Each structure stands twice: as structure tokens, then as C-alpha cells.
Write a sequence for this structure.
């Protein structure tokens, strides 16, 4: 089941097309995370 | 992804960053981002927010957020809105396409109230 509102967002660091991205580096900003099943499929 | 991109400046106006995640390899993410390059845009037409790879350990972040599809080995289509303090304020899982960015922008505006 997906994490629900009121839960602290688990921190992560992932490689992205533009370099590494770390969620906790974005503290002080809102963040929209979009998960999708596969690239090249719209989304 | 196109929807997020089209609305990216509006997200930025609300002090909001966007991260796209799937369980594809980094090579796939780079190829996808390259295919979405739009010459003439700012930033040399590059996709302006990270297209991140949750490939290895496979689906680790998707699992942490409870949206890993164990049968298919990929991420369920879903959106999380995280506030400035790092707390999840809104989440939803979709069987079809994600909502229009306008709905998400509206939710973010409501975070302040």
C-alpha cells in the first residue's frame, strides 16, 4: 500500500539523466514525485 | 511526464521541484530524456527535472513508498506531494494516466493553508 499523507517521506538518492538526485537536498521545497511503470510510455 | 514538463514553471512558482522515477536503467532514462529534448527551450531543450532510475537495488525506492508492483517488477503509476519539511501531504495511485498538473498544483497551493 502506498505511503499515506502524514508520513515522513523516505529519503533516497538515485541516479537521474541529469545526475544524482537526493530527496533530502530538496528540503525547504515542495516535491512532486511521479512514479511510472516504464519510460517511453507517456506518463 | 509531458504534463509535468508543460507545467514546470508553474510548479517552480510554487517552490516545487519535480522528480520522475521508474525502475528502468539509467541508460534508458538518459535515452528517454534525450528523446524528449525540445530544441529552443531553455536549458538547451533538456528535460528540466530529474528522470531518475530506481533500477538497482531494483525498485528499492518504489518499495519504500509502497508502489512497487511485485508481479511486474516495476513501479505503480502514482504521485506523492511532499512538503517543505519532508512530510508526505498527498498521495494517489492510478491505474491509468496520472491527473492533470492543474489538480496537483491546486493541492500544492492548499498546503499553505
Amino acid at each position: 500500500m502506498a505511503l499515506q499523507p502524514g508520513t515522513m517521506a523516505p529519503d533516497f538518492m538515485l541516479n537521474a539523466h541529469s545526475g544524482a538526485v537526493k530527496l533530502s537536498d530538496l528540503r525547504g521545497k515542495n516535491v512532486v514525485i511521479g512514479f511510472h511503470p516504464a519510460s517511453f510510455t507517456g506518463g | 511526464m509531458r504534463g509535468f514538463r508543460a507545467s514546470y514553471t508553474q510548479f517552480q512558482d510554487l517552490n516545487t521541484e519535480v522528480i520522475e522515477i521508474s525502475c528502468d536503467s539509467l541508460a534508458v532514462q538518459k535515452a528517454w530524456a534525450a528523446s524528449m529534448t525540445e530544441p529552443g527551450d531553455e536549458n538547451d531543450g533538456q528535460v528540466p527535472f530529474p528522470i531518475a532510475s530506481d533500477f538497482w537495488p531494483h525498485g528499492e525506492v518504489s518499495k519504500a513508498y509502497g508502489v512497487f508492483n511485485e508481479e511486474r517488477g516495476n513501479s505503480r503509476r502514482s504521485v506523492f506531494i511532499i512538503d517543505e519539511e519532508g512530510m508526505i501531504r498527498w498521495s494517489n495511485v492510478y491505474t491509468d494516466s496520472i491527473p492533470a498538473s492543474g489538480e496537483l498544483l491546486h493541492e500544492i497551493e492548499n498546503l499553505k493553508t
About this structure: Chain A has one domain: 13-43.
